[in-house]
Amino acid sequence: MKKIVLTGAAGALGHQLRAPLAAMADQLVSTDLADAVEGLAGNETYVKADLGDAAAVMDLLEGAEMVVHFGAIGDEAPFEQILHSNFLGAYNVWNAAQKHGVRRIVYASSIHAMGMYPKTTRIDTKMPHRPDTFYGLSKCFAEDMASMYWDKYGIEAVCLRIYSASGPVGNARALGSWLSYDDLIQLVQRSIDTPITGFTVVYGVSNNDRSPVDNSAASFLGYRPKDNAEDFAEAILAQTPQADPQDKAQMCHGGPFATVPLGESGVAYIKKMSVS
């Protein structure tokens, strides 16, 4: 295709996506709040931009065929910060997409849109939202906006409810929730090259034996994950204490985000628990 716009290009996941996306388009425009990023592809340009700035987003999306929208605060934070980057940023992307005739938006949603469901409940793509934080609520908002813009304007959207995207599996929760970087790339590629998607929700997890989600309704995307967290299970379980069934951080899909006070960092809590 002619032009893809990637938001959040300086983040951990955006960094993984830049080269694969550059290979899928004549032009890749990468954007984030960082002053610059290294290793630009020959057909890639970088533009520093705040997604909360409507005029900047409008300029970015001019001529784009698809947007891969990974730009946002990726953690729980005070509502005012989430409002600017995640709520307003998503609105600006969809509004600019409608004005410029963008065909499809591939959106980095999150498991935290469903984070308060107990892990004993296998969740599918049709169940109601149950967010665990302001961050999760922002993902619900963007998913519902994506559905509305599909119904009103025919802008396709694939909402990727990413669970635990990382390198090697690091804890017992990730035995079900892990999304390897290779499978992340495949998921985004299939979200782009599938001929017709309409409005679709799909969970971002690898081919884990212990996966707690049901992706059958999105099987038409052709996403067939190859990595399996079970390869790490023996070593991880040997060093993991017995789970407390009364602890929502262990018993809810959102993990520690299910227990942190609203507005306080879930990532900081995870790091603290890893050290203790």
TrEMBL record:
UniProt entry tagged with the keyword Signal: no
CDD domains (alphabetical): SDR_e
Presence of the UniProt keyword Oxidoreductase in the record: yes
Keywords: NAD, Oxidoreductase
Ranges for domain NAD-dependent epimerase/dehydratase: 4-169
Domain of life: Bacteria
Similarity comment text for this entry: Belongs to the NAD(P)-dependent epimerase/dehydratase family.
PANTHER family: 4-EPIMERASE, PUTATIVE (AFU_ORTHOLOGUE AFUA_7G00360)-RELATED, NUCLEOSIDE-DIPHOSPHATE-SUGAR EPIMERASE
Name recorded for this polypeptide: NAD(P)-dependent oxidoreductase
Organism of derivation: Arenibacterium halophilum
